[in-house]
């Protein structure tokens, strides 16, 4: 018998008619527990038609924003602030508008100019950060399969720039996803002083190398190749530039190490393949879902998603990775079964054809693992499972997903 996953019988949050930045989609939330109370804080992804920036002859743009919500009952109910976004893309189009001041006061390229998707909140050395999948320019109605809207708002002058001199230009031409890191001031967020809550650090991935998302760091450094290094999970769409890319071919989970956080978006980072598609329900791709949670002194629970195709959709499972002496962590246990997938009526797709239950956060509160997820690419769901029961179940499988023992709650 599998661990018992509990779910809400309705969305925790959903689109709000009349809210210009959240009328179409509210999904893929990050959550974190307040260190000073039992309050849970959420950042969710939202979008709506942004007619203020519409170009003649184009669809309405759909920039993606981050909104803020809280829960006082371990995720059963949520109060969201739909009066304004917590974090908004700048939506500049002229060359001089595509810069931002980073956390050190430097004027740098703003990779978060067009969209801010799928936040993940995690600590690094005791400080809170949030990673966000960003595009230089907003798309149009991107869920329409028969319309190419990704490039509608890429300005013409971008194609006259020099890729060799500025990697941002190449990224902007393709409007690929770059994952950007912000430092998060939770106290300012709690006071809804949003302008002081987020501090731009910079990209974690190289957009000119590959579209890249599902990116977040382990909270602690690890000793790798003789150095104490930061360690990051990521999922490049184009795996060919990375280790064993020609072999795996499909978007897969990679692990990277770097001496500084800024080094991740540079050739200074070292990359290894952590896991690739193995089972039928993940035939198209896999990616890590939310920041790892420590299971023991040298083991981490990694939640991950797999996609088979547009009919079967996205589902979720888990693996355990173990740190190695002076080397990258490796997978030691991997569940071969999809443990979470769209089942409830409100999770079924409408605008998107693909069934999707996509977890983007997991936190342990007491004995329970609380997970937040996007459902049908339009709504927010919450799930709970006993943390020990889940990790005990994952240990019933070896690194390849083969059963090595029978699960019982007495293990």
Walk me through the structure.
Strand 13 and strand 14 (227-236) form a beta hairpin. The chain is mainly β and 411 residues long. 48% of the residues are buried. The radius of gyration is 20 Å and the shape is globular. The longest helix is centred in the middle third of the chain and has 8 residues, at 167-174. It has 4 helices and 24 strands.
Write the layout of secondary structure elements.
Blueprint lengths: L5 E2 L17 E9 L6 E8 L16 E8 L7 E3 L17 E3 L5 E3 L5 E10 L2 E9 L31 H8 L3 E7 L1 H5 L7 E6 L8 E6 L4 E3 L2 E10 L8 H4 L4 E6 L11 E6 L9 E4 L4 E2 L4 E9 L6 E11 L2 E8 L22 E9 L2 E8 L3 E8 H8 L17
Antiparallel strand pairs: 1-24, 2-3, 3-4, 4-5, 6-7, 8-9, 9-10, 10-11, 12-14, 13-14, 14-15, 15-16, 17-19, 18-19, 19-20, 20-21, 22-23, 23-24
Average pLDDT, all residues: 95
Number of helical segments?
A: 4
Distance between the termini: 13 Å
What level of helicity do the residues show?
under 10%
Q: What is the 3D form? A: globular
* Residues in β-strands, percent: 35-45%
Rg over CA atoms, rounded to whole Å, is 20 Å
Q: Main β-sheet: number of strands, strand sense, barrel status?
A: 5 strands, antiparallel
Regions with little confidence, pLDDT below 50 for 5+ residues = none
Give the beta-strand count. Answer: 24
- The run of helices and strands is EEEEEEEEEHEHEEEEHEEEEEEEEEEH
> What structural class do you assign from the helix and strand content?
mainly beta
